[in-house]
Amino acid sequence: MAGGGRGLGGGAWQSAVPAQVGSDFVYLDRTAHREEHLAQIRSTVAAYRPGELSVEERDDLLLMREEEKIARDVYLRLYDRWGIRPFDNISGAEQAHMDAILALLKHYGLSDPAQGLELGRFHRAELQDLYDRLVQQGLQSRENAIRVGLLIEELDIADLQNAAHRAVKPEILAVYAELERGSRNHLRAFYRWKQGLGIDYQPTHLLSDDFERIAHSAQEDCQ
């Protein structure tokens, strides 16, 4: 892994990046915070009796499980290549998002579409293609890696919003809302790097006004 900052030499790059806090205490605290939120999610889900899912609710849950895996796997690859701290931090959050969706899958007795899949592998051809394209783009340059991070978080937010509009069960809506808060925080993190490095980026999955509103709003308490 490139956690020591492989390839980060060069004054312009070093001076442009946002300040990072790197103590072990901070990262242990972040992990504990995620575990606490995940325990709350599992408790919320367990409080409801598993009724019958609509076809749309079922399909969205299965898709979300693999879509969160895309985010986690891409970020792990890009952190390994560039050593940019947000990819390490946020990949852990994406694992927590995967675990939250898995709690819903188990609640409803659905098979896990990500079970047994290695890093970067997906059952759906369209998701495999998306992963391959995002990794290829992100490996081209550090700037492209940040663009990929922004694009993934845009897509996550848009898809979570659409899935929430199709869902009616409160436990599903609660999990989607938690994941969307997390994705907004992730977008803000990548946006700070975009601004610090002067990277050009045009949103493609969110309206420009919505993208900017999220990027400039305060961090939220979530996984």
TrEMBL record:
CDD domains named among the record's database cross-references: Ferritin_like_AB2
InterPro entries in UniProt: DUF2202, Ferritin-like, Ferritin-like_SF
Any Pfam family hit: DUF2202
Domain DUF2202 as annotated: residue spans: 57-217
Name the record gives this protein: DUF2202 domain-containing protein
